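User: Sequence recovery, please. Input:
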């Protein structure tokens, strides 16, 4: 039994079952690649972009108003006794935080379940989400808000429960720099401001879509080598 900061109680049940590994050749045809996108969670190798709600930002004005009200109450200063009104307002602030968390979790569960039900193999980047969420990276708030790290955790166990495969491509693999058609590398694509991959072979495509195809191809190559 546990209690959240907004006063909600949760009970958890732990159980164990036999997990019998079965050797088989994975279905390479039903595979997809996902390229991380801070403005919308991911873009897949079929060109689809995930629904990118910014739940924290959408509730930021309401939260800021509640926090300002809290800061003016007796008990907000260090060493002060917490007044009844302060504790009631603190509960309201925590309730907003919990609502944002529930919205994000619900959306990520739905997206991960849809992918796990539709594909046998899912290829993703092995990103360091903690490093990307740092202020120095430039979009830390967006990274924390879209919950990509949580999304990968949910996707991983959902695929495992269905006997399917999650392949993590090395984070240093230059997925955004390679033309998926001819394989030519374009170092200029390191500049995130360039949003289109244009290659001499005739390819002209959204950079994230191209990267997702490269992630899928690299993931399948790794899987074939392992098998």
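Assistant: Recovered sequence (227 residues):
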């Amino acid at each position: 039994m546990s209690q959240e900061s907004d006063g909600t109680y949760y009970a958890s049940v732990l159980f164990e079952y036999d997990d019998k590994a079965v050797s088989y050749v994975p279905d390479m045809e039903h595979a997809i690649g996902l390229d991380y996108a801070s403005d919308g969670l991911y873009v897949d190798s079929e060109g689809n972009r995930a629904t990118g709600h910014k739940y924290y930002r959408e509730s930021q004005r309401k939260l800021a108003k509640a926090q300002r009200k809290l800061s003016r109450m007796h008990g907000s200063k260090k060493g002060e006794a917490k007044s009844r009104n302060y504790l009631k307002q603190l509960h309201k602030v925590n309730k907003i935080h919990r609502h944002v968390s529930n919205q994000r979790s619900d959306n990520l569960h739905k997206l991960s379940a849809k992918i796990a039900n539709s594909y046998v193999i899912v290829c993703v980047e092995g990103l360091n989400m903690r490093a990307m969420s740092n202020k120095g990276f430039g979009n830390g708030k967006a990274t924390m808000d879209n919950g990509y790290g949580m999304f990968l955790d949910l996707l991983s166990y959902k695929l495992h429960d269905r006997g399917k495969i999650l392949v993590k491509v090395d984070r240093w693999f230059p997925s955004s720099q390679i033309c998926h058609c001819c394989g030519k590398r374009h170092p200029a694509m390191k500049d995130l401001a360039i949003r289109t991959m244009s290659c001499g072979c005739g390819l002209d495509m959204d950079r994230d879509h191209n990267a997702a195809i490269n992630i899928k191809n690299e993931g399948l190559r790794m899987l074939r080598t392992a098998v």
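Residues 2-226 form one domain.
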